[in-house]
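quick one before i forget lol
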Amino acid sequence: MTIEEALKHINKTFKYKGDKKWFDKWTIMNEPFVGDCEDYSLTTIYYANDKSMLKFIWSIITLKYVLYYVKTSRGEGHAITRYNGMYFDNIQRKLVTKEKLLEDGYSVFIPLPFPFVFLKMIFGTVMK
């Protein structure tokens, strides 16, 4: 499945639901898709890799997909994903340029190393 097909598929049923304040676990969502920004990114990557966990892991390790921490125009922490020089997230819901994100008020852009991503998927955190 291409990244565009994965985004289209997930967007059909995606509903945003934030994690509890005291617990932030990053997951690959099941259908219908309900989750937050990290869940949206991880699920899109998983589907773009033909729902293969091995391909999913490899695509993150090799930096084919890189998750970023950003600040939105409202100053909130948010996760987005870079793929092939473009970006996607649960707000844009399609591939966009960094210039588009900057125009929309995104700032900071801190790449999250793959060990951090996998640890968040495995353990989450007690404090957000």
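fyi The beta strands are 15-16, 34-35, 65-71, 77-83, 86-88, 107-111.
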